[in-house]
Write a structure and sequence with these properties.
Number of domains: 2
CATH superfamily of the largest domain: NAD(P)-binding Rossmann-like Domain
Shape: elongated
Number of helices: 12
Strand order of the largest sheet: 8-7-6-9-10-11-12
Largest sheet: 7 strands, parallel
CATH architecture of the largest domain: 3-Layer(aba) Sandwich
Order of helices and strands: EHEHEHEHEHHEHEEHEHEHEEHH
CATH topology of the largest domain: Rossmann fold
Structural class: alpha/beta
Radius of gyration: 21 Å
Length: 316
């Protein structure tokens, strides 16, 4: 029997049943906003954890003597120091593809909202006006997908159905009908919409920097549903403010919630959303259940999607 901590707000009787059926006890506590010492205290005596985008740094993990398995309830795992976890023999899993449909539909919504000025139009009506600014059609436009994971792959049939052309840059050689695979400079130069779907790593941090933004069309729009630090926010704000880029729709930002002094605030053409691409009833239910199943498997020494289990076996 293991003590399991769940930091997400995804509630599912089925997920709880998976954990309790395996003999584990469940404790819930959000970790957002806590100090490292407070996180360590919350993990005291915990053997397995299902976490949101919580900072499990080396300073935290090195003090978690009982922890054996962590499951990130989503795809991105940049908030977890996997190297430190490996040193401690802690298995770290993510859930690839668990919310891909939700993210794909949401991305399509951002493309439509941006192309037709839906947010600014609705805001104008709310302020007493009746703005009828002309938008643009998606048909015939080119979308560039940076990364080709499960969410990006799920977007392809949606944008093709709208009559869009699709470019993609990926480090994994592949082919897909209707998709033209190119290098990043070509994608930036040709795309009307650049949509980010790549993981955050040391090499992709600020992938979209001043130089990348300068390579894009001045009429282009940046869409980010992946990770905030992929974008140099100061450079983006400057590019949009001075008309070198048409705008941006950002579901993720460098610091969440968006700070009051963020350079993104007050820039006409940049819309920031509260990290909700994967937040559908269906995706949350699936995530809760799959996270519970993965944690049970990991605690039994048989994780399905561990990032480091092959290394931790040599530690424990």
């Amino acid at each position: 029997m293991a003590r399991v901590l769940i930091t997400t707000d995804y509630a599912s009787p089925e997920a709880d049943g998976v954990l309790t059926g395996a003999g584990h006890t469940i404790h819930r506590r959000p970790l957002r906003g806590l100090t490292a010492d407070e996180i360590v205290a919350a993990l005291d005596g915990v053997t397995g954890a299902i976490i949101a985008n919580d900072p499990l740094t080396a300073a935290v993990l090195d003090r978690c003597d009982s922890l054996r398995a962590v499951v990130r309830s989503g795809v991105g795992y940049d908030s977890v120091d996997v190297e430190a976890a490996t040193r401690r023999g802690i298995s770290v899993s993510n859930l690839p593809g668990v919310n891909s449909n939700a993210v794909a539909e949401y991305t399509m919504g951002l493309l439509l909202a941006t192309a037709r000025n839906l947010v600014t139009s609705a805001r104008g009506v709310g302020e007493g006006g009746w703005p009828r600014t002309g938008g643009r059609e998606l048909r015939g436009a080119t979308v560039g997908l940076v990364g080709f994971g499960a969410a990006a792959r799920a977007i392809v049939p949606l944008v093709l159905a709208f009559g869009m052309r699709v470019l993609c840059v990926t480090s994994v050689p592949t082919t897909r009908p209707g998709v033209e695979f190119v290098d990043l400079p070509t994608l930036l130069r040709r795309a009307d919409f650049v949509s980010l779907h790549t993981a955050l790593t040391a090499s992709t941090r600020h992938l979209i920097d001043k130089a990348a933004l300068a390579a894009m069309k001045p009429t282009a729009v940046l869409v980010n549903t992946a990770r905030g630090p992929l974008v140099d926010e100061a450079a983006l704000a400057d590019a949009v403010r001075h008309g070198r880029l048409a705008g941006a729709a950002l579901d993720v930002v460098d610091t969440e919630p968006l700070p009051a002094d963020s350079p993104l605030r007050g820039v006409e053409g940049i819309t920031v959303y509260p990290h909700m691409a994967g937040q559908t009833v269906e995706a949350r239910r699936t995530t809760a259940v799959e996270a519970a199943r993965e944690l049970v498997a990991a605690l039994a020494g048989r994780p399905r999607t561990s990032l480091n289990h092959h290394l931790t076996k040599a530690v424990r």
